[in-house]
Amino acid sequence: MKKRIAVLTGAGVSAESGLGTYRDNGGLWDNYDPMEVASIEGWYRNRKLVLDFYNMQRAKLAEASPNEAHRLIASLENGYAVDVITQNVDNLHERAGSTHVVHLHGEATKVRPENTFNDEDGFSEKYVFDIGYEEVNPGDKGANGVQLRPHIVFFGEAVPKMEQAIGIVEKADIILIVGTSLQVYPAAGLYRYASPEAAIYVIDPADVPLFEPRIRHIRKVATEGMKDFIDILK
Length: 234
Ligand code: APR
Hints:
Bound molecules: adenosine-5-diphosphoribose
Shape: globular
Number of strands: 9
């Protein structure tokens, strides 16, 4: 039976692919107000602003490639049962070869009619479809004739995959946290569900708020820190 690794990633794992983080200096939220471009109130206030923001994210993603950290995370599957639980909306883990990826905050390449994906339909994905790196604009409608929206968990919305993510973390033998400032809940609290026997590692060049003395912090960028992590596993 292979040991289980849960890899919890944030924007920092994609930083070396040229995609911005959110809260570092010069990050996305230095240039855009998340409450305008990434919240449910912002969506109802100005759909075009939100659609344009994610059109820009998709265009950047079309030019980006997975980096060595994504590839090393994917390579863990050779010896372990690996689940990646990412806050990122990019598709770089999948493109690097990871086969079990849970997107807590949605996916930039996916859209759905704005009147779907709610408690009534059990947050099903039956209305969600992948548009790749194409634009979505006001007036673009789904098969049900309703305006399309990004398949992103906006600020102010539920995180439908949180239960699934907790179940994965509870069963993991090793938790690896890479490139997240651990500021946005409930995702930031996920590692607290680790079993007392699990080993927990963090890869981040900066200090991040950690409340467990057992956590080992590899204070490096993801591409370097992943090499150290793989050496530790040997
Ligand atoms: N390698 C590893 N970590 C890095 C690197 C790098 N090259 N560069 C930056 N980091 C770290 C930063 O030190 C920081 O801890 O990545 C983290 C980025 O933090 P944020 O920008 O806050 O990104 P994230 O934690 O993913 O944000 C969480 O906030 O706005 C919402 O939905 C959005 O999913 C996002 C969530």
